[in-house]
Request: fold
Amino acid sequence: MTSDLRVEVPAELVATHQKYFGEAGRAWLDNVPGLAADLIDRWELRRDGPPICGAVALVVPVVRAGGTTAMLKIQPIDDETVGEPIALRAWDGDGAVRLLEYEAESGSLLLERLGGRTLADVPDDLAALRIISELLLRLNARPAPRDVRRMVDVGAAMLDRVPVALANDADPDRRRVIADCAAGPREGVPRPGERVPDRGLHLANVLAGEREPWLAIDPKPLAGDPAFELLAALHNRWDDVVATGDVPGAVRRRFDLMTEVLGLDRERAVAWTLARVLQNKLWELESDDATWHSGIDLEVAAALRLK
Reply:
């Protein structure tokens, strides 16, 4: 294997996979250098910088045979990642990064390369939130492909886990939040529309582009109601929320901005946002791992429950 093909896996990626995926994560990581070299060879790519990573994926800057730059993204196939190429194909570059190549067997993607600037670099947090809301409105305009996971199925499975969570959780505050946040979906939020909400879109997942000012990356799509996608963006730049001295009021200002731009019924959006908090709390309990946004979720839920 030539040095141009050899890809070193960053230590941060090794650490997260060992923490969250155990033996399966280590086994996947062992195959990554060989998979990357094979894809670089077969897709006629040339390395163009050191690899970078998030919590799950390895991303390698590359140049295609014709001279255009791109990003090779390698990640395991699971419920969180399987929908990414489906959503990117449905959007076809309209508001989102363009998918250039995809290998179904490994889940690897070749993506257009975007700039290094993200929406988190926009100084005004509400201006950045308006941009991401307008982008979500465009992405939601496409009907959901048939092979995207459906929110009604995910929601039903989530509610099935609630009784066990309530029985096993020793934390009374978290039990109260779980029971409260489960009430909206359980009490009959109407059947969601078949759009493609991106429940993982936040400021760091919107990058500057050349063909458009801002483009979404790393989608986590579900076929369902756009009201389910607000929480990730509400988390962003939390220090700015705290700095107002009125956290509930600042949360509601952000929430109202998003629901206005997206044209969402507020009561319905509150119910689905609480459902997203529930999803996070169930994961936190079942994985025995409090996420960095655990306290923020509680603040958001409390603010939205206030009249």
